Amino acid sequence: MIVLFLSGVFLLLEKGTEKYLLAYFMVQALSGSLLLMVQLAKGNVKGMDLKRPIPYIPYISFAFILTNMVL
After folding, report:
1. Distance between CA 15 and CA 52 in Å, rounded?
2. Which string of b and e fits 44-59 if b means at least 16 CB within 10 Å?
3. Residues 20 and 14 sit within 8 Å (Cβ to Cβ)
4. Is the distance from CB of 59 to CB of 34 less than 8 angstroms?
5. How far is 55 from 4, CA to CA, in rounded Å?
6. What is the pLDDT of residue 37?
7. pTM for the complete prediction?
8. Rounded CA gap, 16 and 8, in Å?
């Protein structure tokens, strides 16, 4: 969560426009969606929890790269 917050602050301070704040929200939504899709495909979801904990940073990084390529 701290990484997501710091990336949003970085985008807002670096560019200073709402476009990049929107990119921050896109990163959060995309990383969460990627995590959900991959973990559902692997069968690692039980109810609202993961059966085995996994690192979230790779999903955030991948979503950050994709979002910056689009914007």
Report:
1. 38
2. eeeeeeeeeeeeeeeb
3. yes
4. yes
5. 14
6. 94
7. 0.70
8. 11
* Mean pLDDT within 2-23: 70
Residue 15 pLDDT greater than 80, yes or no: no
Q: List for the chain the helix, strand, coil content (%; round to 5).
A: 75, 5, 20
What gap in Å lies between CA 5 and CA 26, rounded to an integer? 13
What's the one-letter identity of residue 44? N
Angstrom distances, CA of residue 30 to CA of 14, 37, 38: 21, 10, 12
Helix (H, G, I), strand (E, B) or coil at 55: coil
